[in-house]
Amino acid sequence: MSVAVALIAVLATPVVHALAVTLAARPPGLRDVVNALFAIVLAGLTVYLVQAAALHETARIVLARPLPNVELAFALEPLGALIAATVATLGVLAAAHTSGVVRATQEKAPARMMAFIALASAAMMGVCFSANLFTFFVAYQALTLATFPLVAHRGDDDARKAARTYLATLLMASAGFFLPAMVWTYAIAGALDFHQGGVLAGKVDPITASVLLVLFVLGLAMTAIPPVHRWLPVSIAAPFPALVTIQGLAVLPAGGVGLLKIASYVFGSTVLQSATWATRGLIVLAGVSMCVAALIALSKQDIRERLAYSCMAQSLAVVMGALLAAPVSSAVGLFAASLQVVALACASATLTMAAGTVFAATGRRNVVDYSGLGRVMPWTFAGFALAAASMIGMPPFSGAWSKLWLIVAAAAAAMPWAAALLGAAAILTFVHLGPLAASALAGRAPTDAFKRPDGASILLAAPVILSAGATLWLLVLAEPLVNFLQPFWTGGGR
Length: 494
Hints:
Elements: H1 3-23, H2 28-54, E1 60-67, E2 70-75, H3 78-105, H4 110-128, H5 133-151, H6 157-189, H7 206-219, H8 231-234, H9 240-249, H10 251-274, H11 276-299, H12 303-323, H13 330-362, H14 373-376, H15 378-392, H16 398-412, H17 416-442, H18 458-469, H19 473-490
Antiparallel strand pairs: 1-2
Helix pairs in contact: 1-2, 1-4, 2-3, 3-4, 3-9, 3-13, 3-18, 4-5, 4-10, 5-6, 5-10, 6-7, 7-10, 7-11, 9-10, 9-13, 10-12, 10-13, 11-12, 11-17, 12-13, 12-17, 13-15, 13-16, 13-18, 13-19, 15-17, 15-18, 16-17
């Protein structure tokens, strides 16, 4: 298989997946097998593209040319390949977990939910492999439209209201900030391609660069940066399998990937350095908001809300890393932010699947009701504890390495206060996740934990512990990833 064919297949497979799972809605066994098989195929294709990117192979496919020097095009590059492979591989576990949840909870219209999850995956692949700002914008909007029905899936008044807020926040940010910034970039540069060193390099003054940077960052509401973060807490109206996609495998990672590509390929370190006031102001906003989100998480008793704000804090760490890409620390900042996207996907997917398992087996989703559940659900809460440790930043889990690199980037940029904000957020994350995991594992086991005598099925428990194991992989692969991602900031192999 050629790299170009594999790239086309990666983009097309989730779309076919959505159609197939809809047609195979009955019987449930066939639906679940189809859902899992397509997830496995997508994961295999993304792993193949990672191997191709490691060998410095390239591919570019053009689907349309709507404007001069503007193409609807997709290309293979290391960052997109890494994130695509991460979320697609975790997607295999999420597919198995989804089957377990819908069976245990008797979720209505499960085939429809699986279809929209697949469409969200297709849009996420488009985001990862987008070759220019225009393609990214199209894929980004497609992701918004694909996940909107997941928030509204339950169909009650609360779900519909949450879905309207979700859709309005993401679309208004895109139309009000990102679109004008993209048009302005096209007017200045005459092109929208992702170009190593920045398509704006040498073409903008510091004031223009600063305004454009603010517009792009606020337009990428999927990073959950205030004040355009409201979509994330309201997304908890979605069923747990959909939350795995929104918080771990599509929406939050898409925001991170988009910001990294814009920082590196649209601005470049030289232009970012010239936008001093905007860069520092946005780093302050992201850092303070990261701490506030972690603090708000402590006040939330619904596990879905607590995890939403915890994930928001982790996503804002990606924003900080991307904005720390000054000439003295561009490689460090971009590498740190890239690792943080991976760490966020692994930990968030695990925690959300664990919470979904608990709800499916026990009907509980309030934090106060988690005490002692680890005694009767040891595998699920072992996975929860490992993912929580990664989210906090405890070695040897993946979150520790990304945060260490973020602190190094802050030090290299002569911003010790940014490192202090990262440390404060880590402490606050420990406060809202650590005691929760400890209480679940060490508390007295409840006598009436399970809704059914058989408890949690293997489809509910196994994906959690396997996903938790993924939080350890950066311990082995951190150094190889430096070499793999090097073309992202040096231009080699592009």
